[in-house]
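Exercise (ungraded).
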Amino acid sequence: MEHKPKLVYITRKEHFNAAHRLYNPSWTDAENEAFFGKCANKNYHGHNFDLYVTLKGYADPNTGMVMDLKKLKTVIKTYVVDKLDHMNINQDVDFMKGQLASIENIVVAIWNQLEPHIENGQLHCIKLVETERNYVEYYGE
Amino acid sequence: MEHKPKLVYITRKEHFNAAHRLYNPSWTDAENEAFFGKCANKNYHGHNFDLYVTLKGYADPNTGMVMDLKKLKTVIKTYVVDKLDHMNINQDVDFMKGQLASIENIVVAIWNQLEPHIENGQLHCIKLVETERNYVEYYGE
Amino acid sequence: MEHKPKLVYITRKEHFNAAHRLYNPSWTDAENEAFFGKCANKNYHGHNFDLYVTLKGYADPNTGMVMDLKKLKTVIKTYVVDKLDHMNINQDVDFMKGQLASIENIVVAIWNQLEPHIENGQLHCIKLVETERNYVEYYGE
Amino acid sequence: MEHKPKLVYITRKEHFNAAHRLYNPSWTDAENEAFFGKCANKNYHGHNFDLYVTLKGYADPNTGMVMDLKKLKTVIKTYVVDKLDHMNINQDVDFMKGQLASIENIVVAIWNQLEPHIENGQLHCIKLVETERNYVEYYGE
Amino acid sequence: MEHKPKLVYITRKEHFNAAHRLYNPSWTDAENEAFFGKCANKNYHGHNFDLYVTLKGYADPNTGMVMDLKKLKTVIKTYVVDKLDHMNINQDVDFMKGQLASIENIVVAIWNQLEPHIENGQLHCIKLVETERNYVEYYGE
Amino acid sequence: MEHKPKLVYITRKEHFNAAHRLYNPSWTDAENEAFFGKCANKNYHGHNFDLYVTLKGYADPNTGMVMDLKKLKTVIKTYVVDKLDHMNINQDVDFMKGQLASIENIVVAIWNQLEPHIENGQLHCIKLVETERNYVEYYGE
């Protein structure tokens, strides 16, 4: 009855726990403290981050799926979660080297990590929830 | 003071519990098992599904509403929730007959069930949450 | 490595508790009761409202941020939360005077309160959650 | 295999939206304002209340249940939710007449409303969640 | 400073998705339907179950832990989650054979599965959440 | 009508974000790594911690309250949240000096911080949620 392919958006939620601090290395410690406040604490603080990865695409008629979520889970684990979970984002994460560890920068870096590995459908949005009151989204623009 | 009509999006969340399995009848059992894994279990498994129905439209100046949410609730109950709740999606649901019971296909079928019955505003999005880690959205395209 | 500025969406969630009733003063009490049902109760009822404010913009290279969320929090507190929290929306809130206290109207009024005070980035969306089953979004159109 | 009856605790969550204010009629308005702050606002404020009702008892071997949750839902609706939902707790609720509308007093009053109507098992706990940051429990002591 | 050992309660949450139906084989189909309503649907329905396992014990001074939560996670996975996830509780689960698949009975059966494998501390409570409105707890009595 | 005082339990939820690592200084780095795995990462990781503080007591007839939650909030902020929020628990927190930074030890330390400052009612339980899958409770025993 329904022959026209339908564009659906599928989302997988993953999770990691990490430490970070907000710190601009070209500023003095006092300037960092003045601007970032307690987020600049030199011994770091941390969060439970929730990560939502959304793809868009057409369901395959044989499987009813845009992309197998088990595969998507593996891709996210390999290229993002294993590199961030229980890590210090300022010190331990290769794809954040040389960047200020703000959630705005992290969300763009996660997009860049995942995009080459999405085989079915297209990466549509990365949403990163830092606390129950703050989150950031990036649509690749 | 505000005379230009404003386009607002209203969302109603409903809920149903159902069983399903992922199974392509033109494949062998072994092929289904190989592709869908435990989601193909022949005795079914199930979920608590959360359904979000979003309309867009202009608020009526007499009521302040796009559509009375009590009416929307009744429409969703009649055409979707009563047909899915405590049911087996592969066997008991007329509007899923002949379709693979993936959430991608279910969300499109729910759109088709609701769309003819939206009298005020326009159906904008159906979001179906299968587990706390997986969800699908469909915007009618 | 990344030189092109990236458009990110940042969201801050705030909260207020308020009383309201749905009531059209140009209708009789019986007409209000017939249309709005228990939502028209003359002694009011209330909700815990969750408010999501989303901005879009480009991260400042010096701070990694679109807008300092501490500043955004202060703006929301001053122009919205302090005026609504523990208040009666029909009686106590200057920016709702003369308007039906529906969530569709409240969400537009909150947009108008905040928009002049967003200094970095652009106001993108106001989302107001009235109950765990109902919410409204407004994108300024 | 298991012959000894097992003591299980079953909980049903229900929901109501209501207005209230904290106000001691034997104090002056200034004293109320000084003690209760914005919670004393004379035009009321409101909340979405979540109510958890817990029974304890032994599962009936014929039904596997302590008490049919459909029956428990009906009892809670009749004696509690229908009397509180979309109401003003200070003015509209018979079983709160003459009492300060604090959650501590409401939770005891809800216990007294329900206890005579629990036919299977025993009322064990009433938990009332006022906001995502405040809740009260009462065990009948 | 603190020498007396302290009794702490630690909880691990796990998750499984399963199908079930409420059905007493010694009743007729009509009797099952009359008592259990749509929960008796012969083609099954299903849920996302959240499982909370609580131990009590004294923290080991060398590790600061009652029991390594990674080990507890493995025990729960082996003896409970792998046997229930994506399964039909009435048909596929050895430790539920011959029992009515009510959450009251499932929670006791899960206790019996786990108890012999808790090496540090003591099993204190099993809580099983069937829907956002229903849950059951069992303390081994 | 109700003259006997009623024992009620009130809970306040607060929140902090912090970094920590699991590390026993009397073990080698290799031993720490072997036992604690990625939780021992030398550059720290972090969490959003939810803290629930429960008091028990009798409601004051003049206020309807066990303890003014605004006061309790201030006590928790002064003695716990201000010392933990955006901090490194291993390095920055006076009341955790010399202790392994496990949640079992943190929860006992929080009890000791708060107990001398509870003026109405009695401290009943501290619950600390580290991730959506792990939490610890302590009742002062």
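Further reading is listed at the end of the chapter. For now, observe: Residues 69-84 of chain D form the longest helix (16 residues). Chain D touches chain E at residues 1-2, 6-14, 59, 62-66, 68-70 (CB under 8 Å).
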